[in-house]
Amino acid sequence: MCDFPLISDPNLIVGMEHSEDAGVYKLREDLAIIQTLDFFTPIVDDPYTYGQIAVTNALSDVYAMGGKPLTAMNIVCFPLKTMDISILRQILLGGLDKMHEAGVLLVGGHSVEDPELKYGISVTGIVHPEKVLLNSGALPGDLLILTKALGTGIVSTAIKAGIADPSLVDQSVACMATLNKIAGEIVQTTPSVHACTDITGFGLLGHAAEMIERRDIGIRVFSDKVPFFPKIRGLAEMGVLPAGLYRNKDFRMPLIDISPGCPEWRSDILFDPQTSGGLLFALASDQGATCLARLHDAGITEAAIIGEVVTSPPGRIVVE
Ligand code: CO
Ligand code: CO
After folding, report:
1. pLDDT 10s digit of each residue in the chain, 320 long?
2. If I label 241, which of 9, 213, 234, 266 is the partner at 20 to 30 A Cα–Cα?
3. 58: which residues sit within 8 A by CB, 6+ positions away?
């Protein structure tokens, strides 16, 4: 992933050479720290909600690595000359409320003046060095579970076009502001979870592609089992699609086979770039039903088994 001259260190479990969700560094035989950060420009109008989503999104990378987030620092770029400072206060409050919900302490931060508003956090978490979940550990025969519905990118595009249904917007906002904490805890306490990542800008198929990169495995996606916000079907059929979706498609299409049974609107949704999406994880097939039931019982009702890991064809994703 990276051609900078890097210093190697035996305690570095996950570094820049991996296309992973976060960095992991071993401190002791039984303790490693996870570090990640994320920030972005507003994706919703309401500042408090924006703060909530930015924090939820940044914390996801710690959960995706099998870790527990402990502390965070604010990253703020704010247009002081053109925007009322009360807006910043609302953003920070939204972020802080999500940190409280996650049991994460805010320990500092940094602000700069910037013509374009941006907010996010850096996060430090912990994990047992032997329990780090990578996106690359999936084994043939594993099932794939996705914990949130897709569609946040398409909804954002519909909002910009002024054609978004208010109930759909609410659904998308609620989805983006839902922490992956409970899903992460279930993943961490399920035996035989072999790989995990969170779905963000590359879309479901882009992140699934990272799971098979440089490995002798492939993935079958059961496209009719993939959860998405019901009302985005019409938008996808009309071609109300974000630019990032087309980029994801162009980038990954060479290793994806879409079977004739999967309509284009549905395969398009599988490429939709997500903000603060769910976890995607691979686990031994005999654990699939129990794990799914635990997710549903915990209120993660959208969670579904959406595919499986196969040996053939290797290096390819077949969308059925
Ligand atoms: Co991630
Ligand atoms: Co990230």
Report:
1. 457 788 889 999 999 877 788 999 999 999 999 999 999 999 999 999 999 999 999 999 999 999 999 999 999 999 999 999 999 999 999 999 999 999 999 999 999 999 999 999 999 999 999 999 999 999 999 999 999 999 999 999 999 999 999 999 999 999 999 999 999 999 999 999 999 999 999 999 999 999 999 999 999 999 999 999 999 999 999 999 999 999 999 999 999 999 999 999 999 999 999 999 999 999 999 999 999 999 999 999 999 999 999 999 999 999 99
2. 213
3. 36, 37, 38, 39, 72, 120, 121, 122, 123
Instruction: Tell me the CA–centroid distance for residue 82 and ligand 1, in Å.
Output: 33
Taking the CA of 197 as reference, the closest ligand is 1
What's the 309 CA to ligand 2 centre distance in angstroms? 24
Q: Which residues pair with 120 in a beta bridge?
A: 39, 75
CATH of the domain at 61: 3.30.1330.10
Is residue 1 a part of any domain in this protein? no
**Whole-prediction pTM:** 0.96
187 occurs within a structural domain: yes
CATH of the domain at 151: 3.90.650.10
**Of 130, 165, 188, which residue constitutes the final position of a domain?**
130
User: How much distance in Å is there from the Cα of 58 to the middle of ligand 2?
Assistant: 6
Which residues are in the CB-under-5-Å shell of ion ligand 1?
21, 61, 198
Ligand nearest to the CA of 200: 1
Q: How far apart are CA 22 and CA 9, in angstroms?
A: 16
